[in-house]
DNA sequence: AAACTTAGTTATACCTTATAACCATTATGG
DNA sequence: CCATAATGGTTATAAGGTATAACTAAGTTT
């Protein structure tokens, strides 16, 4: 058990270092904590550029896929359409992307990056890469790649990739 | 680049499957998506018990460390003290834990699980374990353990564990 | 042409996290 | 010993992320 004495409140704080031992066996708990650390660091890295994790992601996908529609972007980012609206508003107000009329469909917008958007996107990717380098310092490179691969498989379970089960 | 034709909006949706290729190289993005999947599944598993990820975590730590104080619990769970108050309220109202007066300090509460709390905690751990088994089906067991180890190191970077850099 | 669907939007609600400020109590230090 | 500081718990508040229903305008189907 976590500590030896019966009442945790009486023990010095040191004896609580493994107080979440039971939870640590669950990937969800550990992932939540790791993600929180990463997200904070990432947002801090992006804040000087006026971006957050979400707006950064949206910007990158628009730069890589100019002309795509909002619903497509929402699907790519795996977020709901209504939640994308404010993100696009924000990027548009910042002059990084613009909503152009779609030639095919008068309901839809074709999202395109501006020159500024492309430029800031490059800067932001460098900032995020520096953050990623901090992750890489905690892990050996093959380990980092294995981590990403494992996360990907959790997100999209493929048949045939299972273990001994 | 993601697609071949210049305008993403004109291409079939299939050509957008790798539209987030740039982002995928960053662990933060992939972790966010994987965590979202895990968290949804986990919360769905806990909802029938009247628990969420956070209240479950708090309950488990209280059961494992009876008598600890709220501030200690907050530190163990790495959340701010004010944010714990409602969680404790919720668990107390559900009759799973209770705030007992601390013998040492009249300001503090000693958190203790009730019998019901202990029982539900066991049930909940089983439910979460079943969820974890779903993760385990996507990964080989050594891979799952490597994942948890990697996440832990991201959360708490230790010196000397670095790669080639 | 009527009915259905889709693109984008608005409004709303809930959860999580963060901060400042407060009260009661305990600890510190002249 | 009393003034000051620090701590435990609380309240209020704000911001971010996510989810759903409902609306409009435009496109699609039959």
UniProtKB/TrEMBL annotation, chains A, B:
Pfam families cross-referenced by the UniProt entry: MarR
Domain HTH marR-type: 24-156
UniProt xrefs under InterPro entries: HTH_MarR-typ (IPR000835), MarR/SlyA-like (IPR039422), WH-like_DNA-bd_sf (IPR036388), WH_DNA-bd_sf (IPR036390)
Protein name: MarR family transcriptional regulator
């Amino acid at each position: 058990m976590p500590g030896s004495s019966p009442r945790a409140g009486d023990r010095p704080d040191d004896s609580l270092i493994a107080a979440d031992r039971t939870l640590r066996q669950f990937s969800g708990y550990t992932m939540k904590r790791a993600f929180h650390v990463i997200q904070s660091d990432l947002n801090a890295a992006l804040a000087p550029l006026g971006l957050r994790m979400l707006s950064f992601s949206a910007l990158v996908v628009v730069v890589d896929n100019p002309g795509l529609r909002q619903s497509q972007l929402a699907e790519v980012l795996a977020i709901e359409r209504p939640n994308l609206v404010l993100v696009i508003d924000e990027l548009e107000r910042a002059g990084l992307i613009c909503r152009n009329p779609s030639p095919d469909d008068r309901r839809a917008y074709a999202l395109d990056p501006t020159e500024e958007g492309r430029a800031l996107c490059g800067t932001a990717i460098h900032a995020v890469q520096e953050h990623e380098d901090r992750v890489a310092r905690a892990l050996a490179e093959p380990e980092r790649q294995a981590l990403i691969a494992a996360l990907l498989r959790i997100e999209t379970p493929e048949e045939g990739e299972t273990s001994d089960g």
